[in-house]
Amino acid sequence: MRIKRIGTVIASFVSAATAVVALATPAQAYGPSYCNGSTCSLSISSNTSGIYFEMPRSTPVTMICWTDDQWWNGTNRWFKVDSLYGRGFMIATQVSNQTRVGHC
Fold this sequence. Notes:
Blueprint: H1 2-22, H2 26-30, E1 33-35, E2 39-43, E3 51-56, E4 60-72, E5 75-83, E6 86-91, E7 95-96, E8 102-103
Parallel strand pairs: 4-8
Antiparallel strand pairs: 1-4, 1-7, 2-3, 4-5, 5-6
């Protein structure tokens, strides 16, 4: 009888955990950082000459590392990020809720 109850508790826990994962939004897959501008530039390099895409406001990003390069928009800090639109660099002033990452 006790084993049956333990099995029921475990099954309930697994079911609840599965439901939480199934209901997770895509933003949770990337992290707490996001694009804070009306659009944010995604660049193949840590400068404006490599910009290839403009992400919409609130696009979630995962910060990978940072580097200092071209001054733009008041800073020379660039973050390498992963986003729904690919991997690239974003200028630091366009990244809200920044997390701690190492140097590239």
